[in-house]
User: What shape does this take?
Amino acid sequence: MTTAQSHAGTENPAPTATVPLGPDSLTWKYFGDLRTGLLGVWIGSIQNMYPELGAGVEDHSILLREPLQRVARSVYPIMGVVYDGDRAAQTGEQIKSFHHDIKGVDANGRRYHALNPETFYWAHATFFMLIVKTAEYFCGGLTEAEKHQLFDEHVQWYRMYGMSMRPVPATWEDFCAYWDHKCREELEINRATLDIFSIRIPKPWFVLMPTPVWDQLFKPMVGAQRWVAAGLFDPALREKAGMRWTPGDEVVLRLLGKMVELAFVAVPDEIRLHPRALAAYRRASGKVPDDAPLVEAPAFMAPPRDRRGLPMHYQPPHTSLLDRAGSLVHATFSLTGLSRLPSLRSPRKPTGSRRKVA
Assistant: This one.
């Protein structure tokens, strides 16, 4: 793997630039899109296949205990490193702080630490490839120029963490070689990976639905995501996982992708975009002040009571009953389209003074 010459041999180089991504980037266009959720099993399993990362998940994660809440609350700060503007680097530092105590020795006697630069970058690389594969399969595809642009943006995005840039490939072509090497030579099917393949989604306490009904709803959804993951894995990974994929499967996946692409033409931005991304577009278009509070995960996504206060968990801030009622009303109006916001896909740059929103 070739890395940028300016990073070679330097363990913790000072970032040459910490300019956050903005609404003109392709990363903003794709990362906050709801369609990335179709790759949930894909990204969960391929992250865990990295030995150090998988060991950390096995020893420290409570993903299997509360998978929906764990993923939902984690996505907010992860999205923030892309969408928080001048506060993106601060969000990156917050995410790093969750990983300080995730360390140990795996079953094979190998030491691991979540802040090992190679391990931390691998997680970031999977989010970058999440964008690439979502765009290729479910959003109409990417040109080679767009792939190069997304690669450059993923480097700019990674700088927001303040991590060593040593593991980062220098070019898109180098990244493709890096990815291929990882898939062929380093990734493994470990316990954490198998747990994702067979994951059961426990019914959250706040869902008013009989558990058997919930299980029957989610079982086929997880199976479908596992099938999508098989299609998006590199052939070397499918072979390691013992997954079968035929030309017919590929045709069906491509047809499904086209159907999803067409269906989302009519999906409003208030539904299509993650709340952190939607808020960023509103700030960029001047609808809310630049210093408006960042959108955080709802309080009901908090970690279990016996885990609260541990530094490895993102804790949604406590909100008053009045604030929660206001958020519910706002979300209801947004989902029904009554807010009548114009499309946020191509926000205009604000002109003149901005009116503060009460």
About this structure: Residues 1-16, 320-358 have pLDDT under 50 and may be disordered.
